[in-house]
Amino acid sequence: MARHILVINDTQDVLDAIKMVLEDAEYTVTTRTEPTTTAADVEHIQPDLLILDMLFAGKNVGWELIQALRLHPATAHLPVIVCTAARREVTESESVLLGKGVSVVYKPFDIDELVAAVEQALKAPANIPADDIADRAGE
């Protein structure tokens, strides 16, 4: 059975390109353009991996979703790849993202780089200590 990947990005052309690349690599892909996707929505879709942009209309919605996912028991260990052109904003917090088990691929990306990041994310367990999740629940 093909692994299921959810891609959230507010640019349809980017969604179409990522979907084509991943389907060619034999993944099942669901796309969303809504930056209002919640952890419960992601749980309902049941992806094996989430790829999302960080900025939607200039707002850091991606970061908010990552935090919500890590606090939601059903999605706390879901592998996440941030695929973004917001290099400056993400570079500033990249070590925090990596600590939350989030990989980063910068746009424009090489097709092989994206597929390799997906393969790596699906192989490795999310690098999130259980006590880190519990600590964040109190934030």
Q: Would you mind describing this structure in some detail?
A:
This protein is α/β, with parallel strands linked by helices. It is built from six helices and five strands; from the N terminus they run E-H-E-H-E-H-E-H-E-H-H.
Ordered list of secondary-structure elements with their pairings:
Elements lengths: L3 E5 L3 H13 L3 E5 L6 H7 L3 E4 L8 H11 L8 E5 L2 H13 L2 E5 L4 H13 L6 H8 L2
Parallel strand pairs: 1-2, 1-3, 3-4, 4-5
Any descriptors?
single chain, 139 residues, alpha/beta, Rossmann fold, five-stranded parallel β-sheet, 6 helices, 5 strands, globular, disordered C terminus
Number of helices: 6
Briefly note the CATH topology name. Rossmann fold
Report the sheet with the most strands, covering strand number, pairing sense and barrel closure.
5 strands, parallel
Average pLDDT figure? 85
What's the number of domains? 1
Please report the distance between the alpha carbons of the first and last residues: 38 Å
How many strand segments? 5
Give the helix/strand class.
Answer: alpha/beta
**Looking across the biggest beta sheet, what order are the strands in?**
2-1-3-4-5
Radius of gyration over alpha carbons?
A: 14 Å
- Low-pLDDT windows of residues: 129-139
Shape: globular
Helix content: 40-55%
* Helix/strand order: EHEHEHEHEHH
CATH superfamily: Response regulator
